[in-house]
Automatic annotation (TrEMBL):
<feature type="domain" description="Competence protein CoiA-like N-terminal">
    <location>
        <begin position="17"/>
        <end position="48"/>
    </location>
</feature>
<protein>
    <recommendedName>
        <fullName>Competence protein</fullName>
    </recommendedName>
</protein>
<dbReference type="Pfam" id="PF25164">
    <property type="entry name" value="CoiA_N"/>
</dbReference>
<dbReference type="Pfam" id="PF06054">
    <property type="entry name" value="CoiA_nuc"/>
</dbReference>
<dbReference type="InterPro" id="IPR057253">
    <property type="entry name" value="CoiA-like_N"/>
</dbReference>
<feature type="domain" description="Competence protein CoiA nuclease-like">
    <location>
        <begin position="86"/>
        <end position="131"/>
    </location>
</feature>
<dbReference type="InterPro" id="IPR010330">
    <property type="entry name" value="CoiA_nuc"/>
</dbReference>
């Protein structure tokens, strides 16, 4: 615990604690003392036991992530129906929990139920750099969105990512090299579901084009959205546009005609500055697959690089 309360209820960080002063736990109110040694990171420790029986991860990885956030959102006490616990990060209606050490399936489910019943959405960030570095987690050679996990954490089974709207699972797979972004994070979008309704993370999918943003409420909201809903929101935010598609029999003629050249587009939309995004649809029993474009002509959406090439974002469903 890095924060405690003074007798007049002011929050104090362990680095600012003074010897001889009295400090109290913000959850149970019992007295705590500052530990300011040379081996472990400075923190507060209880003189007696605490009513909060959750095990809190205080690894250096955990502290490093927490330190990126403003102090007023760190270690915030959440109370619901007489039960109190300390959230790693509480920002608006979202709780972020960072987890490096092992956690039991029971406690994982307890935390999720507590926060969601209190009205919050939960985003879990797990440190899986060791698993990825040792190829226990590996990406597929034929699909950069598909991953294989040899020995996934079984406690994750209670969260089915493609069905959950209140809980998200985010994995850190590589070491952090950028203090301002979250490019090294991936959100699990889909996992196998067994006959009992539990998720099996031995095969899971991500959205390679999506970089989770943990530092804004809009970013947290996007993490909780499904890949499809994020894409729909992207289209809403970038209106007006006209849908185009590859030459699939039965579609209206204007789906094939370019408004700029008045000719058949012949897939040239792939590299057009007026195209919002390329969408690759997989055919199913209910819909025709193919390549779709979203033409925003005459708006120029993407500027060409110094070589005159236009790089468009793409998404696959």
């Amino acid at each position: 615990m890095e924060y405690a309360l003074t007798a007049d209820h002011h929050r104090v960080h362990a680095f600012d604690a003074e010897k001889g002063q009295e400090y109290y736990c913000p959850v149970c109110g019992n007295q705590v003392i500052p530990r300011q040694g040379e081996v472990n990171s400075w923190h507060f420790a209880h003189v007696t036991s605490c009513m909060d029986d959750w095990k809190y991860d205080m690894s250096e990885w955990h502290r490093g992530w927490q330190s990126r956030f403003p102090e007023n959102v760190r270690e915030i006490v959440v109370e619901h129906r007489g039960e109190c616990h300390r959230a790693d990060i509480l920002m608006g209606g979202y709780v972020i929990e960072f987890q490096h050490s092992p956690i039991s399936a029971g406690e994982f489910e307890r935390r999720n139920k507590f926060y969601t019943r209190a009205g919050y959405k939960v985003i879990w960030v797990f440190d899986e750099t060791y698993a990825f570095g040792n190829e226990y987690i590996s990406s597929s050679l034929d699909d950069e969105n598909k991953f294989v996990w040899k020995w996934p954490n079984r406690m994750l089974a209670s969260v089915v990512p493609q069905r959950s709207t209140d809980i998200a699972v985010v994995l850190q797979l590589t070491e952090d090299h950028d203090d301002d972004g979250c490019e090294w994070l991936v959100k699990v979008e889909w996992a196998i579901v067994d006959d009992d309704g539990y998720a099996d993370y031995r095969r899971f999918f991500i959205d390679d084009g999506f970089a989770p943003d943990l530092f804004t409420e809009d970013g947290l909201q996007n993490i909780l959205l499904s890949k499809r809903k994020r894409f729909d929101a992207f289209l809403r935010d970038n209106q007006p546009y006209a849908p185009k598609c590859s030459q699939i029999k039965g579609n209206p003629r204007d789906w094939y005609i370019c408004p700029k050249t008045h000719d058949w587009h012949n897939n040239q939309c792939r590299e057009c500055q007026n195209n919002l995004i390329n969408e690759f649809r997989t055919g199913t029993d209910y819909r025709q697959g193919g390549l779709f474009f979203y033409c925003a002509y005459p708006r120029i959406i993407h500027e060409a690089d110094k070589y005159g090439e236009v790089h468009l974002p793409s998404i696959r469903f």
